[in-house]
UniProtKB/TrEMBL annotation:
RCC repeats lie at residues 162-212, 272-323, 324-382, 383-423, 424-476. Signal peptide: none annotated. Pfam families: RCC1, WD40_RLD. Residues 135-392 form the RCC1-like domain. Keywords: Repeat. This is RCC1 domain-containing protein. Gene3D superfamilies: Regulator of chromosome condensation 1/beta-lactamase-inhibitor protein II.
Length: 478
């Protein structure tokens, strides 16, 4: 009875509160002026949720993951499938450009080395097209590219004012552009009530996280065969446009990160709680069951662990807590859970509960994690890089060739890994058939190699690894 009362009360506030001040008449550029009123109303909603525990502190909206700094340059490479790389914006600018190239394989274009995007105001505006929303497009800074997210088969660009544009495959409505084409090489604006902070473009559905901590999902909702509930809306309906996951609002939760798998979704809240929904096959929801979940539910085995980062592959997930311990769950047919060589790895291998990854990671404090299709990677506090999975290493393997430098971040694509060191240098390893290694070659490498296509005087700041395409942003070296 209490839970029903709380949900009823919070629904009223969620419907008229968190978004009340952000009505359709308020442009994104004006929303900072109303943020304090939004937060005060949100506090009312959160306090009713916390009524179940008088000692619980009310959740607060996430600190924006956006940064006020605008990248000096943005580089992309890999294979452009259905328009995932904006070829019209590419220009030579890398040191290794002369030894590589752009070439076609069927209907696909392969860019095997980093090429910069033409971020000139006129070129970018022309590429994005006319915008019909109420944002102040006359503001030069507002229309500058700030972030770029590479997904399974799509790409998202977020501008400095929080507007989001998407392009690539849209076969299941995963781009959130309404009743549009099955794919688009032309970017389409995704209208959302708040600035976008993070985008996760999965192979069948996608999620948009706003700076207010709200989560919107769209695309394939599931089926009796593939599993249902990955969008978190309590049904298996598919949506062509982003729809608010209102159960988070009702429960007084704010999302701080989200990752889309094949048919499941993993969400991290500002309170360090991990939630999952979607198909339960292979234990990918981490709740001991293999049943589907229509709504986001907590992963109980790591409740209270103060999780600080999550990552999801095709059918498995990772969670990193404050203590630097990594838990993994889901499918383990290629050793992607890092469970060790003692475990028989086959097509049915799985772990339905979060299990600490030990082996060489035991006793080390992990600071960053990443997940690819069926492999994963981790960075430790001392700057070591570990990789595992993809039928190569069933437990974490130390990348000894990088011990001369300190690795600070990592990203995983479909079958490759990118590592960033403290000097802003980028390294890659894995399968290079699609040009994702950025080495002016399509050969495979099992050892990390420096990506030399970033010009001297620039350092990589962020990177995003899609299945077959890559983007990174740079700043001027100090």
């Amino acid at each position: 009875m209490i839970a029903t009362t709380v949900r009823s009360a919070t629904r009223v506030v969620s419907q008229y509160g968190r978004r009340a001040a952000l009505s359709s008449s308020t442009s994104i550029s004006d929303k900072s002026a109303v943020s304090s009123s939004c937060c005060s109303i949100s506090a009312i909603r959160c306090s009713s949720s916390a009524a179940l525990n008088n000692d619980a502190a009310s959740p607060s909206p996430p600190q924006s993951t956006q940064t006020s700094s605008i990248p000096h340059n943005v580089y992309m490479w890999g294979t452009s499938k259905q328009g995932t790389i904006p070829l019209s914006l590419l220009q030579e600018g890398g040191a290794s450009a002369s030894s590589g190239g752009m070439f076609s394989t069927g209907n696909e274009k392969i860019v095997d080395h980093p090429m910069s995007l033409n971020l000139d105001q006129g070129a970018l505006t022309s590429f994005l097209g006319d915008d019909d929303d109420d944002s102040n497009t006359n503001d030069d800074d507002a229309t500058k590219l700030q972030q770029i997210f590479c997904g399974a088969t799509g790409t998202a660009m977020v501008l400095n004012d929080g507007r989001c544009y998407v392009f690539g495959s849209n076969k299941n409505g995963e781009l959130g552009i309404g009743e549009g084409p099955k794919s688009t090489e032309t970017p389409v604006h995704v209208p959302l009530p708040d600035p976008v902070a993070k985008v996760s473009l999965g192979p069948n559905f996608s999620a948009f996280l706003t700076t207010m901590g709200d989560l919107y999902t769209c695309g394939y909702g599931g089926s009796a065969v593939n599993g249902m509930g990955c969008l978190g809306h309590g049904n298996m309906e598919s949506y062509q446009s982003p729809k608010l996951v209102d159960s988070l609002v009702e429960d007084g939760c704010y999302a701080s990160d989200v990752h889309c798998g094949e048919y499941s979704m993993t969400v991290l809240t500002t309170e360090g709680e991990v939630l999952t929904c979607g198909t339960g096959s292979f234990g990918r929801l981490g709740n001991l069951e293999t049943l589907d979940q229509l709504y986001l539910e907590p992963v109980e085995m790591i409740a209270g662990d103060d999780v600080v980062q999550i990552a999801s592959g095709f059918a498995f997930s990772l969670a990193l807590n404050k203590g630097g311990i990594v838990h993994a769950w889901g499918k383990n047919n290629e050793g992607q859970l890092g469970a060790g060589v003692g475990l028989a790895v086959d097509v049915y291998a799985m772990e339905s509960l979060p299990t600490p990854i030990e082996g060489l990671l035991e006793g080390r404090k992990v600071t960053r994690i990443a997940a690819g299709h069926s492999h994963a990677a981790a960075v430790t506090s001392t700057g070591e890089l570990f990789t595992w999975g993809m039928h190569m290493d069933h437990e974490p393997k130390l990348e000894n060739s990088l011990l001369h430098t300190k690795i600070v971040d990592v990203a995983c694509g479909q079958n490759y890994t990118l590592a960033l060191d403290q000097e802003g240098r980028l390294y890659s390893l894995g399968k290079g058939k699609t040009g994702v290694l950025g080495l002016a070659s399509t050969k495979m490498t099992t050892q990390p190699i420096l990506v030399e296509g970033i010009p001297a005087g620039e350092k990589v700041v962020t990177m995003s690894a899609g299945w077959t395409h890559v983007a990174c942003t740079t700043a001027l070296s100090e």
